[in-house]
Amino acid sequence: MPSGETESPADAFAPGTIDVLVDGLSLLRQPDGYVFDAATVLALRATPSPNFFPFTCGCGVPGCIGIHTPAVMVVESDTVTWTFPEKPFRETLAAEAFGSEGPLQLRFDRALYVAALDNLQGHLEEVRRARGRNMNIWPGYPDEDLVTAPLQQVLAKQRKRHLDWDAREAWRERVWGDALGTDLVIAFESGNQYSIPLENLADSVASHRLSQDRYARRWATARKHTEFIESRLAPTLRSGLEAVVREARSVPWEILVEDVFSDGRQQQREKDVVAEGKTWPEASFRLRTYEQYQAERRGAANPLAGAVE
């Protein structure tokens, strides 16, 4: 239910918030920073989803607030079930909704679940009719056209976007398997090191090799090359460090370095003259799993054995 409405001329959207109640109790125990993604929940309705983020950061990126694993929504003939990951939700969701042990799982009667969503959507439509503008139910920085767009139309677009995302995530899991999240780390004589995830490296190699533009950037053309990545590049990159380095070196340094520094894991302050060069610099290489990356951040690095000079 929309609540807490206060006029604010500075806001383009109609003011208001949405709280999630389970048996009359607020589901969020520590709400600071967490935002309910009402747009996604309304768009999906009773559609199964293995990549479901009913709560996220106010900026729209779940990982920004420490949510790195999605919830899962399972739909059966008469029930809808949300299952949350232990971290961070064991501490942030109301224990009364789950109990102190067992999975963080909410099971709803499907008919009542759909009725509750219809009720919420009806209230949001009333707000739009009364105020001439929508409430902001989109985490992050929504486009201005969402202020007055028909809610049903916007939710249809949100649903398509989410289902497309699910399909993309399923493809990533199938193609990369346990190599998903693995980086190629490039270490220079200066002591600085940079990294690029293997899946991003595959995008760079495919874009450069298959595009007519010698300086094609991966983000512009990579989605066109999924078949080539799945059938040839991913198996090669998953075969070991030497193959990874060989494929990386097939891309001109001045092109690859832009992809390296576009990755969010890089420390921009470390970018030095080595990264500005036109040719591949002297460097050593290693592979690093996501778990090792996290360990390095905690100061307990445990890199894979064997480096290629």
Summarize the structure in words.
By secondary structure, the chain is an alpha+beta fold. Helix content is 39%, strand content 17%. It contains 11 helices and 13 strands. The strands form 5 sheets. It has a 4-stranded antiparallel β-sheet. It has a 3-stranded antiparallel β-sheet with strand order 12-11-13. Strands 1-2 form a two-stranded antiparallel sheet. The termini are far apart. The N terminus is likely disordered.
Notable characteristics:
17% strand; 39% helix; 13 strands; disordered N terminus; alpha+beta; 309 residues; three-stranded antiparallel sheet
- Helical stretch count? 11
For the largest beta sheet, what order do the strands appear in spatially? 6-8-9-10
Q: Tell me which oligomeric state these chains represent.
A: single chain
Mean pLDDT score: 81
Name the poorly predicted regions.
3-10, 262-270
Distance between the termini: 60 Å
Principal-axis shape: elongated
What characterizes the major β-sheet?
A: 4 strands, antiparallel
Question: What structural category characterises the helix and strand content?
Answer: alpha+beta
The share of residues in helices is: 25-40%
Which band does the percent of strand residues land in? Answer: 15-25%
Number of strands: 13
Secondary-structure topology with pairs:
Layout: E1 2-3, E2 17-18, E3 21-22, E4 25-26, E5 34-36, H1 38-44, E6 49-52, E7 55-57, E8 71-75, E9 79-84, H2 86-92, E10 104-109, H3 110-131, H4 151-176, E11 183-188, E12 193-197, H5 198-210, H6 218-221, H7 226-237, H8 241-249, H9 253-262, H10 273-276, E13 283-288, H11 290-297
Antiparallel strand pairs: 1-2, 3-4, 5-7, 6-8, 8-9, 9-10, 11-12, 11-13
